[in-house]
Write a structure and sequence with these properties.
Elements (H helix, E strand, L loop, with lengths): L8 E2 L12 E4 L6 E2 L1 H14 L7 H4 L7 H8 L6 H18 L5 E2 L3 H10 L3 E9 H11 L7 E5 L10 H9 L7 E5 L2 H9 L3 E5 L6 H6 L4 E3 L2 H8 L7
Parallel strand pairs: 2-5, 2-7, 5-6, 7-8, 8-9
Antiparallel strand pairs: 1-9, 3-4
Helix pairs in contact: 1-4, 3-4, 5-10
Length: 240
């Protein structure tokens, strides 16, 4: 796959020597897969049951990233009791279970990117705040041939991102130091996770958040297409 020599955004202090990595950990929603419609439809179904206003897909892009409980809290009025949240969360999981494969698709060129990284000998992993069973099911559905070292979603007893526990666990399973691993995601949650794990980060612009947020939280790199990720991994020395 040819690497396009496009202009990349690189945060101040990130050097060319830091542009070579042996492992990459990907976020899932908004990074590998466009899941916004299935999640939005599922949450709107819950809101309609409670006779509450529903949201557009664009509005949901600002609510997703911290797991389904946080999504539920972000979608309901501020003053809501815990019992109602638990009931709504249960409904959300039931809705999502019926439709999570309906409209979800990989982003453009993601398959080519993953296969190219495998050919380069880069070790790959996934760290999502989506429930572990959904995370694994989606990876199996869309990326069955990709030899991920480990795929983790939300697990009981393990804190969600931006806690670095899972990212560090995956790096250990890769037999790599955190500094050798690049964390790629689309939101502040992913950028902060990378910082907490002492990993460099790539913020992608095709996901759910914007450049302003990724810059604000200090992404090491910001990219607009998959070819730019390959360029970083291959130690590109073009214009940044």
């Amino acid at each position: 796959m040819a690497v396009k020599r496009k202009r990349l955004y690189r945060q101040e202090g990130v050097t060319e020597q830091m542009s070579k990595y042996k492992g990459i950990i990907f976020d899932l929603d908004g990074t590998l897969l466009n899941t916004i419609e299935d999640i939005g439809d599922s949450m709107n179904g819950v809101l309609e049951t409670f006779n509450l206003p529903i949201y557009s897909y664009e509005e949901y892009k600002k609510k997703i990233g911290g797991g389904f409980r946080k999504l539920t809290l972000n979608s309901f009025p501020e003053k809501i009791d815990e019992e109602t949240i638990d009931k709504a969360l249960d409904m959300l999981y039931k809705n999502y279970d019926r439709r999570y494969l309906n409209k979800t698709r990989p982003y453009e060129s993601i398959d080519n990117l993953l296969n190219s990284l495998v050919e380069e000998g880069i070790k790959l992993g996934v760290n999502s705040n989506k429930k572990d069973e959904y995370t694994k099911s989606l990876i199996e559905k869309f990326f069955k041939t990709i030899p991920f070292v480990k795929v983790y979603g939300e697990r009981n007893g393990i804190p969600n991102k931006p806690d670095p526990a899972t990212a560090l666990e995956i790096a250990q399973l890769m037999n790599l130091n955190p500094e050798e691993v690049l964390f790629i995601g689309d939101s502040n949650t992913d950028i902060v996770t990378a910082k907490n794990a002492h990993m460099d980060s790539v913020g992608v612009l095709w996901g759910f958040r914007n450049r302003e947020e990724l810059c604000k939280y200090g992404a090491s790199y910001i990219v607009s297409n998959c070819e730019e990720i390959l360029y970083i991994v291959e130690g590109g020395k073009g214009t940044f």
